Amino acid sequence: MSFAIFLEQIINGLIIGSMYALIGSGIALIYGTMRVLNLAHGEFYMLGGYFVFFLAVTYGLPSWLAIPVAVFATFILGVLVQRLTIHYLLGKEGWMFSTIAATLGLSIFLQNAALLMFGETFQSVPYYISGMLRVGDIRLPYQRVLIFVVAIATIGVMTYILKKTRLGWAIRATSQDRDAAAVVGIPAQRIYLITFGIAAALGAVAAAMLAPIYAINPWSGLPILLKGFVVVILGGLGSFPGAIAGGLILGIVEAIGVQLTASEWRDVIAFTLMIAVIWWRPWGLFGSKPS
Amino acid sequence: MAEAPMLTVENLNVLYGDYQVLWDVSLTVNRNEVVAVLGPNGSGKSTVLKAIMGLAPVKSGKIIFEGIDLTKVPTHEMVAHGISMVLERRRLFTNMTVRENILLGAYHKSVNKDTRQRLEWVESLFPILAERRDQIAGRMSGGEQQMVAIARSLMSRPRLLLMDEPYLGLSPRIVKQIAGIIKQVNQEGIAVIFNEQNVQLSFGLSNHGYLLEGGRMVLSGTGEEMIHSEVIRRVYLGA
User: Fold this and answer.
1) ipTM
2) Contact partners, residue A255, CB within 8 Å, separation at least 6
3) How much is the pTM?
4) Nearest CA-CA distance, residue B150 and chain A, Å
């Protein structure tokens, strides 16, 4: 294997990893603030992909318009889903299990609703940008460069929101101590709604960027959900920076692993990595050791 | 005629599921007063404060603060009415800095104007917190964390401050310091209601006390009256 190919694979791993990071950070935000494991997270990704497809392909909107509209629609969908399901379970007896059962049911429901409404045909979206970036021996389609740029920009915006804005402080405070947050005047219920919406929107950003590469179908959320879980377990459940790092690490390890073996081994590598981390550091790379 | 009490709790009953924690508890807090709620472990004294703040399930009874029925006010709106609370065991936002914790005390829209002046006032009460502003709150000592918790609760400039076991787990030296701070807070015109197991410790501060036993109010009076009461001896020593 030449060094250029090796480097190309690392870069590709980083690009896919940035998408894993977006998915994982959504799962981490929801778990961090609500302690809810959202098994329907993949379906936000799936529906986000369909929204992009309908807007960009069916209605022919330009992609710079179709993508933000689809992301916003997914945000609204996330808010609605939280308000109509999780909202009624939180704080009630047995909520830790009931929310898992509810999101699992929701996942099945949304998959079948998508199947019924959109059919089982695999859909795809044309490349947003064509051409190839060449640096020395390394060749990279601009489409992939775009994925990485959008991911970094999204992570940057999210980091800014969490660190610098009133909403971000409220989300962080609520995730650290809900009662203490309520005492200083932060309405947890509203923060939960917004957080769910943001997490869904992050899934839609990933879906929009991957739509030209991976086919959109009613089941496309499932493999993404599994990768998302690997990411949050690597990074530490509920940690936003952990999810970002976990996503990038997973992408790179997968890419190198596939280079050394074969592409069928991709998932084996991912889950082996996850099991190794659980064995060595059950609270994840960035999570804090439970006291 | 005496001024109406600032806070009136009347026949308060609190149930967690089927388990009744408070039975017909009544108390009052006057403007500028420091009130102690006493009682052994498990007597329900924390629950009294939590119920006032909307953090415990009130089944029946009245909680009236300056004419407003607090049982209808959600916890996150309490600061808007001039009530703030220091929760048991500090309950800081442990991954955030001291400054961030304190600033969050002025999160609510009704109190987030003139944040700078509020911060200056609070930091003048706790100069050490200005020095430590960039430290992660969770890495501070218990006493320092309690100061951050009090500072955070003061950022809304409450008229009534609830303090749930402010001395819990602190060394005698720190307890003395915290007691001094409570006095100072009271001198700033803030009424304080706090709970504590140690009777002697409580009456260093308060003008008035209530004693709970098994979720029922069994005694009330001034510090002097209560320290010499037979009931206190019975409740605490089982004699």
Assistant:
1) 0.93
2) A9, A10, A12, A13, A14, A16
3) 0.93
4) 12
